[in-house]
């Protein structure tokens, strides 16, 4: 069960200060504190859980600035600290200079939308900064998605924070930033639940919705608000098995189907939506028995057994996803110069019919080939990575398209291969830093995809880290060294022929006798 604050009197909080390190305070009992910047709540935390003892100062704890806020903290702002229940005056309030201390501190998106940290310390535009009119598109989307799911045979309902807000006060929770739906399938086997989830995704995309998949039993529907903010409407699949409710989002608890169905109703932002039959029991297994007490710093504490079971059943397609989501969270632009591998391929290949950049990242190499007039496809796991490159290509009218590819999903591999192979032609494939980023299953899917795409002729160019003298190269590119002999054996086992192989020295030794970082480049073909 998730840990909650105890009851009783409000804790006495003393010696509260805010400086370049973070927030310091003393309290005998746990307390939720809010940090306000220029009168607006930006961050909430538990003093004891999230803080560390200050050496030599008995009882004093320091809660450091989250990494997601530090980039904004250069200037001066009016900062205050409050007990989250709103009782009493501010515990601290003053003009606080941070960094250079020059100019105002503005914690906002580049276009001026106020940013708040959610319970996972991610930067979000929270509902508390929105008017009723601004969240109306989300309410409309909830109703529409619920209707489409019902037509597809699934009776979905408000879940998690969205259900909590509806039951507690009939409104979205101010510190929340997305909406949640859940459903309990008629199936009780994980495979059937996964198949049903993909069927539901197709029903939504057929009606024009953009869907991003979290796992084989959960996905997100993207909803655009009037000011351009894109909200996630999460749809979590669930099912009953052996007397337990399994609901994605980390719930495996003893439950009865009649506590969910038939569905009841609750009001959210003036709209009536379906909710579980027994909302008290449902919210108790979600947030604990103190779910009625607001807590913007609440953390889910999932039993290891629950996490492992859901990972094994449904999350195999998310291996490594979090790492690359974080890397491309800011939508970086494409590199101005092509990589060495792209230049090497351009010299070797005279007018290829099509170039496919596997793991295209920010899309710089794909744009390089497209600007040379070569039809190009960029494939990557994280669409955010190539989003800016796609906009550049549309603006310049380049012959390039970008598609999502997940090499730890057989479904994604085969669907991508079928889509591209529908136009028979020789192709040139690039795979830079894929072999060294993927585990064994992902590498085998890479070889499978290459074999299918090169059925009409063409060549695969691989480049990967073979030796990392200092570890710096691997950390920078998020890769691990792979032995060329191992990669060669895997390729040959898939029916490939290695036409050429070369090991390149990339860096001088970091210290005497340390050796050099080496990159392996392979030219590979599959004979028809």
TrEMBL record:
Q: Which residues form the Methyltransferase domain?
A: 355-411
An example of a Pfam family matching this protein is Methyltransf_25
Q: Which domain of life is it from?
A: Bacteria
What name does this protein carry? Methyltransferase domain-containing protein
Organism this protein belongs to = Nocardioides marinquilinus
């Amino acid at each position: 069960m998730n840990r909650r604050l105890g009851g009783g009197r409000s804790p006495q909080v003393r010696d509260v200060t805010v400086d370049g390190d973070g927030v310091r305070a003393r309290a005998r009992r746990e307390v939720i504190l809010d940090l306000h910047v220029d009168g607006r709540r930006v961050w909430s935390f538990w003093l004891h859980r999230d803080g560390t003892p200050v050496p030599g100062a008995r009882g004093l704890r320091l809660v450091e600035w989250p990494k997601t806020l530090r980039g904004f903290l250069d200037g001066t702002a009016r900062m205050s600290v409050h007990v989250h229940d709103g009782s009493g005056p501010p515990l601290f309030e003053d003009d606080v200079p941070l960094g250079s201390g020059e100019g105002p501190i503005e914690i906002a998106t580049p276009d001026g939308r106020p940013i708040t940290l959610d319970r996972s310390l991610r930067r979000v535009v929270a509902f508390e900064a929105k008017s009723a009119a601004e969240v109306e598109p989300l309410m409309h989307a909830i109703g529409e998605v619920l209707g489409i799911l019902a037509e597809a045979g699934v009776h979905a309902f408000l879940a998690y924070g969205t259900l909590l807000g509806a039951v507690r006060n009939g409104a979205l929770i101010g510190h929340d930033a997305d909406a949640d739906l859940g459903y309990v399938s008629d199936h009780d086997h994980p495979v059937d639940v996964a198949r049903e989830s993909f069927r539901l995704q197709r029903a939504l995309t057929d009606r024009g919705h953009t869907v991003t998949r979290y796992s084989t039993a959960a996905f997100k529907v993207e909803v655009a608000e009037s000011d351009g903010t894109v909200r996630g409407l999460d749809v979590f699949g669930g099912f009953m098995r052996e007397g337990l409710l399994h609901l994605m989002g980390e719930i495996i608890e003893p439950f009865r189907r009649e506590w969910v169905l038939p569905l009841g109703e609750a009001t959210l932002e003036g709209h009536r939506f379906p909710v579980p039959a027994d909302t008290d029991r449902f919210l108790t297994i979600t947030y604990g028995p103190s779910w009625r007490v607001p807590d913007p710093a609440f953390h889910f504490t999932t039993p290891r057994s629950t996490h492992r079971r859901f990972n094994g059943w449904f999350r195999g397609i998310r291996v490594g996803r979090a790492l690359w989501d974080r890397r491309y969270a800011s939508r970086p632009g494409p590199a101005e110069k092509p990589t060495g591998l792209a230049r090497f391929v351009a010299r070797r290949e005279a007018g290829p019919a099509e170039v496919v950049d596997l793991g295209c990242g920010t899309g710089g190499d794909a744009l390089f080939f497209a600007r040379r007039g070569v039809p190009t496809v960029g494939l990557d796991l994280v669409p955010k990575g190539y989003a800016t490159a796609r906009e550049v290509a549309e603006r310049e009218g380049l012959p390039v398209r970008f598609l999502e590819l997940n090499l730890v999903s057989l479904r994604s591999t085969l669907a991508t291969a079928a889509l591209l192979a529908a136009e028979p032609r020789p192709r040139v494939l690039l795979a830079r830093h894929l072999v060294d980023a993927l585990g064994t299953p992902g590498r085998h899917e890479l070889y499978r995809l290459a074999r299918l795409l090169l059925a009409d002729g063409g060549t695969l160019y691989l480049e990967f880290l073979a030796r990392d003298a200092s570890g710096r190269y691997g950390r920078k590119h998020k890769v691990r060294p792979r032995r060329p002999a191992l990669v060669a054996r895997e390729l040959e086992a898939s029916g490939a022929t290695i036409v050429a192989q070369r090991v390149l020295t990339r860096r001088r030794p970091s210290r005497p006798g340390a050796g050099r970082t080496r990159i392996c480049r392979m030219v590979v073909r599959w004979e028809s």
